[in-house]
Amino acid sequence: MKTVDPPNDRATTFQAVQGNSSEQYSGATLLVSAYAILWVILFAWIALVWRKQSAIGARLADLERILDKAAAARDTKG
Question: For the chain, which residues make up each domain, given as ranges?
Answer without folding.
Answer: 43-78
